[in-house]
């Protein structure tokens, strides 16, 4: 009589995997809640709160956080909570518009380079390398310096400095797809390059491009904030997060911390929330990574 050996999963590994899945689920829920709160605040507060975020009240200037002003007031007596919401609205608009524009440019360049190959691939990748050799902020300053301060010059500046990573991601994905048997079968069946690109390559790279666009939004917001802080981004009268921090430098030196802290948190918190959602999305579209996390 022989006994068959039985194999069971290590309880320690199972508890470790369950703990990681639980932590990941909590992280996703918190990220979703933060992003939802930000979107609702940006969409609902301006039409529902009938207050002028530009209203000056010098008798209430630089008041610390209180029940009447949860974030305090700035050096002109304006409510910081309301101005942070308006600033987030402008910065998020710039970030989303720049991310979408950069994703379209990067997807087009990367897709053409990967699909055509040869001299087209080499030439386009040299363009990408050339743009990558210049610091993004320096190139962005050069672009916005040619225009008047405004929303669209900043969008163009951010888009033209952030499409490079998307181009590389899409090119690598297209090169990987070109080696798949079903692509060879489509080409052998007489399908044109255009049909193969539209029917097979583009749908396969869209999830990666969309993920790159989502991750690009906080980068674009940081870029816009840096340009506005340097006085080269949005007009000073417009309540963007970079302008709020730039205008609060004197208050910080005088010991008033709240005009700088809360606009900074409005930049950091969306960045962490979007990064959490993007990480969960990356795990979902990457089966190998998901299988590793299931251990």
UniProtKB/TrEMBL annotation:
Give the source lineage, highest ranks first: Bacteria, Bacillati, Actinomycetota, Actinomycetes, Kitasatosporales
> What is its membrane topology?
Multi-pass membrane protein
Q: What is this protein called?
A: ABC transporter permease
**Would I find Cell membrane among this entry's keywords?**
yes
- GO BP terms in the entry: transmembrane transport
Coiled-coil residues are: none
Which Pfam families has this protein been placed in?
BPD_transp_1
**Predominant location of this chain?**
membrane
Residue ranges of domain ABC transmembrane type-1 in the record: 88-278
- The answer to keyword Transmembrane applying to this record is yes
Tell me where the transmembrane regions lie.
30-49, 90-115, 127-145, 151-170, 201-222, 261-281
Please indicate which superkingdom the organism of origin belongs to.
Bacteria
Instruction: Report the GO terms under cellular component.
Output: plasma membrane
Family, per entry: Belongs to the binding-protein-dependent transport system permease family.
